[in-house]
Amino acid sequence: MKLQFKLAAGVVVVAAAVSFAQKPKNIKPGWNLFSPAQDVQLGKEAAAEIEKQVAVVDNPQLTEYVNRIGKKLIAQPEAGQYPYTFKVVYDKSINAFALPGGPSYVHTGLILSADNEAQIAGVVAHEVAHVALRHGTSQVTKAQALQLIAGLGGAMAGGGLLGQLAQMGAGLGANSLILKFSRSAESDADLLGARMMAKAGYDPIEMAKFFEKLEAQEQSSGRSIPQFLSDHPNPGNRVKAVSAEVKLMPARQYTKGDTADLSRVKGVIGGLPVPAKANTNFRADSGGVPARPNGQMKQFSSKGLAFKYPANWEVFQNQQSSEVTIASREGIAENNGNAEIAYGAIVGLAQTRSQVNLDNDTRAFLDQMQKNNRDMKPSGEAAKRFQVSGANALLNVFFGPSAFKGQREVDAVVTVEHPQGLLYMILIAPEGEYPKAQPFFDQMIQSLQFAR
Ligand SMILES: [Zn+2]
């Protein structure tokens, strides 16, 4: 009896699931206080800013190739009416991004890693879907509604929408709301993008296959996340969801694109000169990074505190505090007029209310640091205890988005029991650079000296 009952219930559940899955999801833009015209304006301003930082490839064959793919996609009703543009960025990381209102960029690394044109089309369709669904400005709306209601009209009148958003902390910096999306936005962009590419004639299952490939890369390389997955986080069961969406589409003939054409384009990329441009992601893995320690060390000494630091780095005194930033000029990225350190060190003394308690004060310091850098996450490794200059010290490691756009960064935070407070030394490098930086960081830590 019991068994029969269970079976019957199971059948009902399965039937319900099937009827639910057969109906395609209605995907609509979310709440948005911006007008579509403001999306376009913001995108133009952001594109001008970003193109100063990344290396846009000026090659007619590549431009033609991505534009041909892009035009097929934006001819579909899902893309809406935006002035889309498609450009190639010289960058080894597997990524693509789009700005509100249409400016879209495909990294050379993404083209090189694609098995066929349909996979590139899948990623571009995903980006176009973000634009059409206005995810960037919708995210800013949700995060900054009150300030927007107070200020948007004025921003429009005076131009400089991006500048206004930057003042609210919603500009183009690391973890930009405009460039990094929520998981539900990702899932909608996947589905709408898959529909768009299918209507354009591309085999939509190739989108799922490309995501599958990125996920496999992530698993095989351990901690290193393909850039696309870091900016476009997996909403969960991404491959399954796209595959299920594809099953709902009417059967038809699809193309994966021309193989010879893609090989030719890959050859063109292989022959491109490596561009020299400041503060771009490709720089960190192109060798000879100016931000990297050059081998020599020199001595820092001030107010009873001394340590060694890389000789090609400079000391910058922070205006509002006793903190110093030590980095090369190339290690400091400028995002919207704000200086952000991508490769270097920050050293300072945090005041404590009473005698230093290394564990408690470190915890309070790290909490504050995470409040100021919302996307910094602990590495999960236990804090390491050691001694410097005869004092107790702790090492905690964090990960976060790098100010070198599109990369992950490692932040090694050393805290030391100092007679006047909690001495801290934060050592920062893009993840890909970290193995090269670590010996120098170790020397900086080991050389710490202070009067007791
Ligand atoms: Zn996305």
What's the short story on this structure?
The chain contains 15 helices and 16 strands. The protein has 452 residues and is α+β, with helices and mostly antiparallel strands.
Lay out the secondary structure:
Layout: H1 2-21, H2 36-53, H3 60-74, E1 85-89, E2 96-98, E3 103-107, H4 108-113, H5 117-132, H6 135-158, H7 161-167, H8 183-199, H9 205-220, H10 227-231, H11 238-247, H12 259-270, H13 281-284, E4 297-302, E5 305-310, E6 314-317, E7 324-327, E8 332-335, E9 338-341, E10 344-350, H14 358-372, E11 377-378, E12 384-388, E13 391-401, E14 408-418, E15 421-430, H15 434-446, E16 449-450
Parallel strand pairs: 1-3
Antiparallel strand pairs: 2-3, 4-5, 5-16, 6-7, 7-10, 8-9, 10-15, 11-13, 12-13, 13-14, 14-15
Helix pairs in contact: 3-5, 5-8, 5-9, 8-11, 9-11
